[in-house]
User: What shape does this take?
Amino acid sequence: MVIPAEIRAELDEHARSEEPNEACGLVAFKNGRAERYLPARNGAASPYRFELEIAPESWFLEDDGYELAVFHSHVSSPPRPSRTDVENIGLWEGKPYLILSLRTGELAGWRIADGRIEAEEVS
Assistant: This one.
């Protein structure tokens, strides 16, 4: 997954603005390259988990050929899926999953399927 500097800056800015809670949103990719970030509201308003609340029309980007990745921040833990992330994967199973650690500034990509966590390269 290629994330241009301007999209990465949007992820960082949104995550910092939501502290002390996790931020969340969708990243729209075409051919493996991020083209848009759609910030969402964390309905859980929690530093330990997120509930993605986003405008319903955002989902139609898939009809336009975009692959959607869920994004969220971890306030103090590494950018690796937590047990809560794996247990609540739901509709995101097998899809790109991005996590930003506010503690380290590291952004990491994953796919979670059948309880397995696989790293995705992010550049």
